[in-house]
């Protein structure tokens, strides 16, 4: 099995485990106004996850110590496939949003392509995930919803992560 296949498999497994109860927890990430993966909803500040550099990334997070997924998180961090939140935490027990999962997949797969403009009504150029969503759209990994939205801050569901993962092959 090639490295790309292994990585996508890891992402799919992690997403399936972390979002197993996402349907029951709909909106959980937003209900307490805690910032989600670099995006603080009470301000306009954000980060572009897809452009994280090794020198900018922390080599560990205090909230992953002794966590069952610590080794995988550290491996993904060392490869610049993930980044934590602005407060220096990773929050491994939180559900993964659609924007976060898209950014992780894009960080693994990224190559030079002509980016399409993200034509979703809920994705703006100043969002930290804009480039990841644009890349995923350009590569045909995502399509969004019929109403023209991407719903980036909704929890990522298993079936959605499976579709994105399968399209990446």
Number of helices: 6
What is the count of distinct domains?
Answer: 1
Parts with pLDDT < 50 across at least 5 consecutive residues: 20-28, 30-58
Estimated share of beta-strand residues:
under 5%
Shape: globular
Structure description:
With 169 residues, the chain is mainly α. The chain has one domain. The protein is built from six helices and no strands. The protein has helices spanning 3-18, 28-31, 70-78, 98-109, 130-138, 158-167. It is globular, with a radius of gyration of 15 Å.
Descriptors for this entry?
169 residues, mainly alpha
Layout of helices and strands, plus pairs?
Blueprint: H1 3-18, H2 28-31, H3 70-78, H4 98-109, H5 130-138, H6 158-167
Helix pairs in contact: 1-4, 1-6, 4-5
Short précis:
With 169 residues, the protein is mainly α. It has helices at residues 3-18, 28-31, 70-78, 98-109, 130-138, 158-167.
